[in-house]
Design goal:
alpha+beta; 9 strands; two-stranded antiparallel sheet; Aminopeptidase
């Protein structure tokens, strides 16, 4: 089942195996590069999360201080190292400009689900960047590119794969 709301989606009914390796996977599409967030992204991440239209459906208030962005980057990176979640920076391939983030907010083999979240600077909305990034990370999970095992379609044939590929 796919449940979507503005800037987040929940995928249920997929079988998840394993946890993430410590080597952060870099993914690319025709227009985008998805890689690890770094402290250099703090100002851009602050711009993203200080926008009320971006955080409208989040469980946090819009950022008011740069330190909040620095702490969020540290939080995302710590969760990756803990092998339970991964968050990519979304960058324009041609310029390496940061335009948003996306990733698995949860990855639970026991519960057989993953939560996928994403956010994009509003000036990039409506260009298909989020769709492109989400398709790429879900595809990577299904074909085993993430060094964490693979997402697998359940026996009841979830419509997820037909929606994405």
């Amino acid at each position: 089942m796919l449940i979507g709301r503005a800037n987040c989606a929940l995928y249920r009914g997929v079988i998840l195996q394993g946890g993430f390796s410590l080597s952060f996977p870099v993914l690319e599409t025709n227009r985008l590069k998805l890689d690890a967030l770094s402290k250099d992204d703090s100002t851009s991440l602050f711009e993203l999360f200080s926008d009320n239209s971006v955080v409208e459906y989040y469980d946090l208030d819009a950022f008011t201080e740069l330190s909040q962005a620095i702490n969020l980057i540290a939080f995302f990176n710590a969760r990756f190292k803990g092998s339970s979640r991964i968050r990519w920076a979304i960058r324009l391939k041609e310029t390496n400009e940061f335009i948003g983030t996306c990733g698995f907010n949860t990855w639970s083999p026991k519960m057989k689900n993953a939560t996928l979240g994403y956010d994009l600077l509003p000036k990039y909305w409506g260009n298909g960047f989020t769709t492109e990034a989400v398709h790429r990370i879900v595809k990577a999970a299904f074909i085993g590119e993430l060094s964490c095992g693979k997402l697998q379609e359940p026996a009841n044939k979830s419509p997820l794969l037909s929606l994405l590929f």
